[in-house]
Amino acid sequence: MTPAAAPDQPEQSRDGSGSVPRHVAIIMDGNGRWAKQRGLPRVAGHKAGAEAVRRTMQAAVDHGVEVLTLYAFSSENWRRSSEEIADLTGLMRFYLERELATLQKENVRLKLIGDCSAFGPDLARQLGKALERTAGNQRLTLVVALNYGSRAEIAAAARRVAHKVAAGELDPHTVDEHNLECELQTHGLPELDLLIRTSGEVRLSNFLLWQAAYAELVFSDVLWPDFGERAFADALEQFAGRQRRFGGR
Ligand code: IPE
Ligand code: IPE
Ligand code: MG
Known about the structure:
- The chain is α/β, with parallel strands linked by helices.
- The chain contains seven helices and six strands.
- The protein has a domain at 23-148 and 193-240: Undecaprenyl pyrophosphate synthetase (3-Layer(aba) Sandwich).
- It has helices at residues 31-37, 42-63, 82-105, 121-134, 150-166, 177-181, 229-240; strands at 23-27, 67-74, 108-114, 140-148, 194-197, 216-219.
- It has a six-stranded parallel β-sheet with strand order 3-4-2-1-5-6, sandwiched between helices.
């Protein structure tokens, strides 16, 4: 068997130290439990979670992270009640409207992965506007995963590769990791360095399965609505203390 191509070595981050991750992803979990602990409806947890997004985005900007990818709604979250889904859709609309100016002020570019059309035309239109308005921003790329599932993303990439083969654009014998990676929705972003999950759950729940191949994983007991600057800095500190080997010695 031929050896796998060595993954690209991570480049140094903006502060030159190499210890700040360029690309951080977060599975924002624990909104429901946060609300339950307080005797509040789940929607109150999602509202508090939206405030945590705000704080975390600011922390990412302050630390010089280049890309922050947030898991906001999985393709499996449709299993929730229609009431909770409607609440989440309403909150996304409200916060997007409110925070578009913040994205502009902080020079943040919005990018989406997943399929946001499933949330209805109003949110899709609003997201389209935000994408357009922030397209030129350069300080941080905020990638929001909406109705996202990693297996579906990989299957769609394989489908596109198959079409290229069928069209004679690609030789099937030469199809490799690079061809597939080029068709992922994250193509063009720096390699994922750090993946954080809150709420004490230790699983990936169909998030960035391909991209996390050599990411450092940090699992935090903090419930997402309590996440902010301190918890983010703590995760970055853990990352800085890790020795990444990428299969080398
Ligand atoms: C994460 O919090 C938000 C979404 C998945 C949309 P949860 O709603 O999953 O909170 P828990 O896991 O029930 O506490
Ligand atoms: C993962 O959290 C999805 C998001 C955070 C958007 P879930 O709460 O849906 O994951 P499971 O069901 O506990 O695996
Ligand atoms: Mg959950």
